[in-house]
């Protein structure tokens, strides 16, 4: 495996592997959250929203992205954002092709993200993921990689039927 800086030739393979990686996550997420929340975030389906969000990241932040290659083909990627006001790096996107999950690709990409943050003088690295059943493997991975959970509660209220 080799980790290289992102280039435009990686764009389509990274989008495709990301959707494959998240395919099993979204049905479990959908069943774990209120319908109005899921439909608000994904009115045209999760694939549409994920595709447009990832396209924006790949197009707008190419210098923040590292790509894992196996036999010269993309196997995963990480986008690292820096938040100097908090002395913090952020693993903003991490995705590994399902055929390469569990082989060390994710760990290598997280390590690259940590190295990026450390090189810029950051004191910590943060990652966010869902607390639903679909994101359970991600939580296990991050906790197994030494990340400590920060207690956060996020609440939603459906106001579409309320009058003022």
Instruction: Supply the helix-strand structural class.
Output: alpha+beta
The overall pLDDT average reads 95
Which sequence of strands runs across the widest sheet? 1-2-3-4-5
Distance between the termini: 58 Å
**Number of domain modules:** 1
- Tell me the overall shape: globular
Q: Uncertain regions: pLDDT < 50 for 5+ in a row?
A: none
Describe the protein's architecture and organization.
There is one protein chain. This protein is α+β, with helices and mostly antiparallel strands. It has one domain (2-144): Gcn5-related N-acetyltransferase (GNAT) (Aminopeptidase), CATH 3.40.630. The chain has helices at residues 11-22, 25-32, 35-41, 46-60, 105-119, 136-144, and strands at 2-5, 65-70, 73-83, 88-96, 124-127. It has a five-stranded mixed beta sheet with strand order 1-2-3-4-5. The longest helix is centred in the first third of the chain and has 15 residues, at 46-60. 22% of the residues are buried.
Quickly list its features.
alpha+beta, Aminopeptidase, 6 helices, 5 strands, 40% helix, globular, acyltransferase activity, transferring groups other than amino-acyl groups, acyltransferase, GNAT family N-acetyltransferase, transferase
Kindly summarize this structure in a few lines.
The protein is built from six helices and five strands; from the N terminus they run βααααβββαβα.
């Amino acid at each position: 495996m080799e980790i290289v800086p992102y280039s435009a030739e990686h764009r389509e393979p990274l989008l495709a592997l990301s959707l494959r990686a998240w395919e099993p996550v979204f049905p479990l997420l959908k069943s774990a959250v209120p319908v109005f929340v899921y439909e608000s975030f994904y009115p045209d389906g999760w694939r549409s929203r994920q595709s447009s969000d990832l396209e924006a990241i790949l197009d707008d932040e190419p210098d923040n992205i590292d790509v894992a290659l196996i036999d010269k083909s993309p196997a995963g990627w990480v986008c690292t954002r820096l938040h100097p006001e908090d002395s913090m790096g952020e693993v903003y996107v991490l995705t590994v092709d399902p055929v390469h999950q569990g082989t060390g690709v994710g760990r290598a990409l997280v390590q690259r993200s940590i190295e990026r943050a450390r090189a810029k003088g950051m004191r910590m690295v943060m990652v966010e993921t869902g607390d639903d059943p679909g994101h359970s493997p991600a939580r296990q991975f991050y906790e197994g990689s030494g990340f400590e959970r920060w207690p956060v509660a996020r609440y939603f209220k459906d106001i579409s039927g309320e009058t003022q």
